[in-house]
TrEMBL record:
Gene3D superfamilies: Jelly Rolls (2.60.120.10). The keyword Nucleotidyltransferase does not apply. Keywords: Apoplast, Disulfide bond, Glycoprotein, Manganese, Metal-binding, Secreted, Signal. PROSITE patterns: GERMIN. Signal peptide: none annotated. Oxalate binds at residues 122, 127. It is found in: Secreted, Extracellular space, Apoplast. The keyword Nucleotidyltransferase does not apply. It comes from Rubroshorea leprosula. Residues 72-218 form the Cupin type-1 domain. SMART domains: Cupin_1. This is Germin-like protein. Pfam families: Cupin_1.
């Protein structure tokens, strides 16, 4: 029996339309699944609740006010009368509950003459620095130990990739001011000097892992408050 041409054409048409609509259906499913994943507009931090691996819990929407989305703490200079002659004023989720869960935060950096933000990392975020006043020498070291640094003037911007060691030093003869933005509401912080010399890690282990001699390690521990 000869094949039915009408039946064959109908099958071809079905295949044609399926090929056209399957990608569209897939895109629609992705769109709607992502839309429904955002079940609320924001998650203002409930600072009375414990801080966990996923951050702060959300305040009940009925208790949220406009004040949760406003932070005025970056308008005043930080106290630079300290060992590093610098001050960092954070506007992270602990200080600024409205940024909780939004993947953004800010900080103010004040550097007195000779001030320095020591080598440090932010495990949870990349950083963008903009210089507002003065001159700042800033840089970072990549995982291949290549160094990227330069002196930044007013209006200059530099980015520091997530997790990489970086620093800022006042490169001028007057106070410097900068603001930093982060790709996390809680970028985290580990300062290399404090990680090595401000705790009770035995000096002999530090000496073996850093190739510093005992006198240098003991001196740095004394300056930074470490023991052992």
């Amino acid at each position: 029996m000869a094949p039915n041409p009408l039946h064959t054409n109908t099958n071809h048409e079905k295949e044609h339309w399926m090929k056209m609509f399957l990608p569209i259906l897939f895109l629609c499913s992705v769109f709607f699944s992502s839309s429904y994943a955002a079940v609320q507009d924001f998650c203002v931090a409930d600072l009375s609740a414990p801080f966990g691996p996923a951050g702060y819990s959300c305040k009940k929407p009925a208790t949220v006010t406009v004040n949760d989305f406003v932070f005025s703490g970056l308008g005043a200079s930080g106290n630079t009368s300290n060992l590093i002659k610098a001050a960092v004023t954070p506007a992270f989720d602990a200080q600024f509950p409205g940024v909780n869960g939004l993947g953004v935060s800010l900080a103010r950096i004040d550097l007195a003459k000779g001030g320095v933000i020591p080598m440090h990392t932010h495990p949870g975020a990349s950083e963008v620095l903009i210089v507002i006043e003065g001159s700042i020498c800033a840089g970072f070291i990549d995982s291949a130990n290549k160094v990227y640094f330069r002196s930044l003037a007013k209006g200059d911007i530099m980015v520091f990739p997530q997790g990489l060691l970086h620093f800022q030093v006042n490169a001028g003869k007057s106070p410097a001011l900068a603001f930093a933005s982060f790709s996390s509401a809680n970028p985290g912080l580990q300062i290399l000097d404090f990680a090595l010399f401000a705790n009770n890690l035995p000096s002999e282990l530090i000496e073996k892992t850093t190739f510093l001699d005992d006198a240098q390690v003991k001196k740095l521990k004394k300056v930074l408050g470490g023991t052992g």
